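Its record is set out here:
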Amino acid sequence: MAAHRLPPRIIQGGMGVAISGWGLARAVALRGELGVVSGTILEVVLARRLQLGDEGGHMRRALRSFPFPDIAERIIDTYFVAGGKPSDVPFKNVRTFTVEPDQGLQELTVAANFVEVFLAKEGHDGRVGINYLRKIELPIPWSLYGAMLAGVDYVIVGAGNPKDLPPMINRLARHEPVELSVRVQGLTSADADVAVRFDPAVIHRGRPTAIARPDFLGIVASVDLAAGLAALPEAPDGFVVEAPTAGGHNAPPRGPRVTDDLGQPIYDQRDEVDLAALRDIGLPFWLAGSFGTREGLRRAVAEGAAGIQLGTAFAFSAESGLLPNLKARILEQVVNGGVEVLADWRASPTGFPFRVLQIEQSLSDPKVYEGRRRVCDLGALRAPYKTDSGNIGYRCPAEPLVAYSRVKGGREQNTEGRACLCNGLLATAGLPQYRVKAAYEEPPIVTAGSDFRAVNELMARKPADRPFYTAADVIDYLTQPTSV
């Protein structure tokens, strides 16, 4: 942990795809807390923003500051559409990652992560972090390098064991080649290990720029994982400890798989983190999941935490990337006491429980889900597998049934209830793909935590002439004394 500054009290969660965008992270960082951008499929986010005309010129401005201008120019030439593409014209697709991604995808991914962090840090000295999912492993080396080129202060990784990340960050800070082992379904001990490999020289081409090592926080749900990570020769700088009520992907229950009447996983005392044992590890930690209130922050600090991570309240603030009309509909539900979030064990192709907010005209609506044609054209959640010929293929249980089960040999029961999170989350952030044959836009899917107390209070406190509260309002709500 960097010694020259106290750790932040509040970490703004790195939510969804482009929900925790650069604008939200910047607003939080300007108030002295840790603003976090989501690092999920930023290569697609950048390409689509450029095709929409790059309102405000922010993407191109950031690309002009990318240290390798030839790469930046190629990206602008490939994707920028002056005035924006027509609404009934599909986005140009970005190639999907494999264990050997092509040069153009490598460059786009590095540049996209640079852009998001650069914009979040632009014009101030506040701290900015980036959040990745360990489950989306193929792009990680290129994504990290791009964020580090922009001076990211913190890297936060969950949805899997992040033990490989601290040594990778250390090597990338020295522009050294890195590799990341990849889990391939169907491999045996007789098969060679599979990894993605990245040499920063393919980007800097002998012209490396000075970059600093960011602090690394591992997202954990147990003391066992935290202690194991802390014992590594290259250990994390701290932890975010997520309770099951946190939004997005959750760790599965540690006990037997038991569900309630709605099909939600049931957690018990085995899933409660022993905070005394966590304190004994000796690294700073932040608590997440139902700690996002003023009282929750005080309780966390009293338990020895450096502070809290909070997502849900920031997700519905004015600066978040959530579509304004969708945000307004959800906030109306919150105010009227009708918001419902279900932990869906089937929705995510990763197999992790995924919290889905229930709202009409989204993938939580059975009619919308059933009416969507299955397609997998983004592939962020595809899993590598060993084919009958011994090669590596890629499949996702949310892709078309015939492709998944008959062509690629996946178990058909794995496809039941799966949602395309890649397309759904992009739609939630206002970047939906248009399907020409069916003449419709991809529907959104909204994820959130289960605790809306802070959102309720913030909506009650905001001026009547403003539709949304701001990120600064969230921080004031959390830090002001109760009497204020």
DSSP finds 18 helices and 16 strands in the chain.
